[in-house]
Specification:
- The structure is a single chain.
- By secondary structure, the chain is mainly α.
- The protein has two domains: about 190 residues, no CATH class; about 100 residues, no CATH class.
- The strands form five sheets. It has a two-stranded antiparallel sheet with strand order 1-2. A two-stranded antiparallel sheet has the order 3-4.
- β7 and β8 form a beta hairpin.
- About 10% of the residues have low confidence.
- Bound molecules: zinc ion (2 copies).
């Protein structure tokens, strides 16, 4: 086997590893922890005293304290996102109410008159025909049973979105808006998405930590960018050419000795900073929108016409519990639980 083939094989296996979600989870979490701890330590120990050189000691102390506060908020909410038990537990959360059938729509959802409808119709026409026409546009949930013999076709049953449906993995009914996560291998109440950076699902119980994390992450990235811009202007741009600002060029030119490793390091760091600034602020905007509308990412992506009839303060209570603003100082999930009914969703209407 030649060397080039061996290198190709290595790259391919790396690609395979990256498509493996468990590996992706661990990789993203390690990157996050190393990145946060590294950047916070660097900022608090070196960057802040350097930037506030001309100011009094009190200003330096205040800026450092603010940096510690930001890092603490991000870390604590990250741990909460990861370790707050998000799974649907029938013994704790309740089971399917009497008088309700599996697959019975418990809310009146109008037909979403979009391309999605025709796509769904094509996908499993026979299943859809058996359902109430009113729900066609919002039928999203397909339960698949794997065939037992080679000749058998997979058995698929389609249910209205807003109904109790069977989870074939957990082998029990699950409430509307509750989805099984293949990575976490549990059914998650009001599942929003699986977050690789936390290695956990975001749902009914930890959406509050996710949103608070994003808020402080946005503040932290804006705070860092405001400090990085003057340094960039006075130290980096003066000593480098325009093309050095593209980070692979900077790395290559610093390896060849044309620019200092410090400048190359700072150029790479600023690219990371800009990426995180973009991620944090755009995700924060999405989450604020979802809380305002009372929807999940899944429902937004599938253009479901769900309406949460409550006012904004009740919607905030349904995510944070009472005194929602206090969550931005300290996690309070163990004191103020979300005020909502995660099994029946009585306030969600057509
Ligand atoms: Zn499940
Ligand atoms: Zn998950």
């Amino acid at each position: 086997m030649t060397r080039a083939v061996r290198i190709m094989m290595n790259i391919l296996s790396l690609k395979k590893k990256f498509t493996d979600v468990l590996f992706l989870d661990r990789f993203s979490q390690s990157c996050f922890l190393f990145g946060l701890v590294g950047i916070a330590t660097f900022g608090i120990l070196f960057a802040i005293p350097y930037m506030y050189n001309d100011f009094s000691e009190k200003v330096v102390l205040f800026a450092r304290a603010f940096g510690v506060f930001l890092a603490f908020q991000m870390l604590i909410n990250w741990f909460c996102m990861k370790f707050v038990d998000n799974g649907y537990n029938p013994d704790r959360d309740g089971t399917m109410p009497d008088g309700i059938q599996m697959g019975q729509n418990i809310s009146r959802i109008p037909v979403a008159d979009s391309k999605q409808t025709s796509r769904n119709n094509r996908r499993s026409q026979s299943d859809l025909n058996t359902l109430n026409k009113r729900n066609v546009g919002s039928v999203m949930y397909v339960a698949s049973e794997l065939p037992k013999t080679a000749e058998e076709q997979p058995k698929r049953t389609t249910y209205p979105y807003f109904s109790w449906t069977p989870c074939l993995r957990c082998n029990r009914p699950r409430p509307p808006r509750c989805h099984h996560c293949p990575q976490c291998n549990v059914c998650v109440l009001k599942r929003d998405h699986h977050c690789h950076f936390a290695g956990a699902c975001i749902g009914y119980k930890n959406l509050r930590h996710f949103s608070v994390f994003l808020f402080w992450a946005s503040v932290a990235t804006v705070f860092s960018t405001l400090h990085a811009v003057p340094y960039y202007y006075y130290h980096v741009i003066q000593n480098t050419s325009f093309f050095d600002l593209i980070f692979p060029v900077a790395i290559a030119r610093s390896a060849l000795g044309y620019i200092s490793w410090k400048n190359a390091f700072f150029i790479v760091l600023s690219w990371i900073l800009v990426t995180f600034l973009y991620w944090a602020t755009s995700f924060l905007q999405i989450v604020v929108d979802l809380i305002r509308l009372g929807k999940t990412t899944f429902e937004r992506d599938h253009k479901m016409e769900l309406t949460d009839k409550r006012c904004l303060s009740d919607k905030l209570r349904s995510v944070y519990g009472n005194y929602w603003i206090l969550n931005f100082i300290i996690p309070l999930h163990f004191v103020f639980e979300p005020i909502d009914d995660p099994l029946n969703w009585p306030y969600i209407k057509a």
